[in-house]
Specification:
six-stranded mixed sheet; Nucleoside Triphosphate Pyrophosphohydrolase; 8 strands; alpha+beta
Length: 135
């Protein structure tokens, strides 16, 4: 699952190194549903706070899709987080500890999505879902 967090008319993204592609990637905060019995909304809130230091006041499911149904059954949920309040981030692992938090104004999202700078599918789906809503 991933989270489109809107703070002061901007979306909170993370720039971090991804070893499988040997590159820095600009992505939405995200995480796995790896705590038994934890609802997806709770996972989204926890991951957002851990990775970015923002606690959502409101979460809404805005997209749901399979990442690659030809070879995996991974199902992704995209949550919109609003009314976010700052807290202390709690990164897990070296990738998150070295991550840079990036705020991108909503007005700049169409150009960002078209630029190729975002090459992560879940992030593209999340940003385009936000734009489709007319944010």
């Amino acid at each position: 699952m991933c989270v489109v967090a809107v703070v002061d008319e901007a979306v909170v993204l993370i720039r971090q190194f991804r070893a499988p592609v040997d590159a820095m990637m600009l992505e939405l905060p995200a995480g796995k549903l790896d705590i038994p019995g934890e609802p997806p909304e709770r996972t989204a809130a926890r991951e957002l706070e851990e990775e970015t230091g923002y606690r959502p006041g409101r979460l809404e499911l805005i997209a749901s899709f399979y990442t690659g149904p030809g070879f995996t059954d991974e199902h992704m949920r995209v949550f919109l987080a609003t009314d976010c309040t700052p807290t202390a981030p709690h990164p897990h692992g070296p990738e998150e500890e070295a991550a840079e938090i990036v705020h991108v104004p909503i007005a700049e999202l169409p150009a960002l999505a078209a630029s190729g700078e975002v090459a992560d599918a879940k992030t593209l789906v999340g940003l385009l879902s936000l734009l489709h809503r007319g944010a």
